[in-house]
Amino acid sequence: MIEVKLDKVSKQFNGARGVENVDIHIQPGEFFTFLGPSGCGKTTTLRMIAGFYYPTEGRIMFGENNVTYTPPNKRNTGMVFQNYALFPHMTVFENIAFGLQVRKQSKAEIMDKVTRAQKLVHLDGYGDRRIDQLSGGQQQRVALARALVIEPNILLLDEPLSNLDAKLREETRLEIKRLQLELGITTIYVTHDQAEAMSMSDRIMVMKDGIVQQIGTPHDIYNRPVNRFVASFIGESNLWEGTVERMEGDSVYVRTSSDVLIAGLAANASPECRLALGSKVTVSVRPESIREAAASERGLENILAGKVLMSEFTGVSVNYVAQVGTLPIKAMFIGPGQRMRHRDEDIAFAVPKESVYFVE
Ligand SMILES: Nc1ncnc2c1ncn2[C@@H]1O[C@H](COP(=O)(O)OP(=O)(O)O)[C@@H](O)[C@H]1O
Ligand SMILES: [Mg+2]
């Protein structure tokens, strides 16, 4: 197990920003994920850690070793590429063995290690199959075995599930997590899929346009997004713009631009959000934190009466898109026994004060 440190790392391509000022400290054995939309700099950052790109600025440390300009084959990282980069005409065994042969290990040693790696990814007995005779999921596991067989200090995975269909993606996600826990290997995982990032990671780094937005546990990122981008990229959120109208004890009252008053707690503000009378803020509320209000609650704080625009039943929840005056609202009521309301019906929502979050 080894720690990985990026010290103010930047990479430019002919003067254009790849990534800027990435500063992270990944713990030994941690599952750390780079998350963001296409083009935000995830692969660039991963490639610098693997040694395929050198930074324009900054320093990369593996434990006590400065590896900033160390060539890839001297870093002992195992990498899985998005397209797997397997040799299609070679067998499973030959593909997995490749890295060991390059390292000039003995035949007996190679046999032993490849057999173990095949077991690890549940491909025992597949050694003689050619890659082009395998399914996408099996190919993905060969790529994983090939990365692991060299016993790397760090496992690097660049969108390893993106070529799989939805069901297989979920299975393989659990499989990768199991392997990582079993081996205790420091793992850096790249994805644009927030559900993948949330379910697998110890910590997530959210990126946009080459700039780090937030680093935190899935819990932090979900419940305490630092800005509007993070709030909207991770899960669904109601994002309402407004102005601070009143501050009273622990409470903050924001008048949205559609003239609805929302109360929240001053403690639930992102570090970038300055709460002061008259300041403009964005209010973020998760749809699943909203519940249906009882008739007796009407007129109370954070009880929003409106009309249904759209409703859907998903099996686990009833989801609403509704309007409170001109304020759009998304709500998700989870659990059995929800009475479904349809288009144009009246509905009242209760927004719990403690689930109101202020960003920017
Ligand atoms: N080899 C390269 N040459 C020039 N620009 C590049 C190169 N690799 C990446 N970039 C640019 O750097 C930015 C980040 O790209 P990348 O790291 O591949 O994003 P992601 O993996 O998050 O989709 C993009 O604007 C991309 O066009
Ligand atoms: Mg990429």
UniProtKB/TrEMBL annotation:
GO terms for cellular component: ATP-binding cassette (ABC) transporter complex. It comes from Paenibacillus chitinolyticus. InterPro entries: AAA+_ATPase, ABC_SmlMolc_Importer, ABC_transporter-like_ATP-bd, ABC_transporter-like_CS, Mo/tungstate-bd_C_term_dom, P-loop_NTPase. This is ABC transporter ATP-binding protein. Coiled coil: none annotated. Keywords: ATP-binding, Nucleotide-binding, Transport. Pfam families: ABC_tran (PF00005). Residues 4-234 form the ABC transporter domain. GO terms for molecular function: ABC-type transporter activity; ATP binding; ATP hydrolysis activity. It comes from the Bacteria.
